[in-house]
Each structure stands twice: as C-alpha cells, then as structure tokens.
Write a structure and sequence with these properties.
Distance between the termini: 13 Å
Structural class: mainly alpha
Oligomer: single chain
Helix content: 40-55%
Length: 73
Amino acid sequence: MANIQAIFTAIETAVNDLNLEHKFDIQQRPIRIDQFDTGYLYEINNEILRLIEESGFLIADLTCFRPADGKLL
C-alpha cells in the first residue's frame, strides 16, 4: 500500500516550487480533505463540492484509497 503522507509531501513540495518559480497572482495550495479540522460537523461531500466550486484550478487524486482506515474502496 502506498504511503499517503509521502505522496502528499511530494505534491506539497511541487506546489510550493511552482508558486516560488512562477509568482502567480493567486497562490496554489495543496489540501487533503481527510485532514480538515473545521471545528464542527459537516458533510464531507458538501465540503468537497464547495472546494471544487471555489477552485480556479484543480488537480485531484481520485483513487479509491481511504487513508483513515488504510483500505481501498
């Protein structure tokens, strides 16, 4: 099974390098929906849809892996 944190760290590094090299007007930011801590209960599907709607540019990992329990869906 893939090390999800290592993959995210690689993505995070690439995004940070991209921001530094290209000086975009809007900074790109890597996020993991499973690490959100909003401080209240919310529907994760609604949160995902909200983030997609607010994104001007989106790259998504749509694998069937759930990091919380280490299982493929």
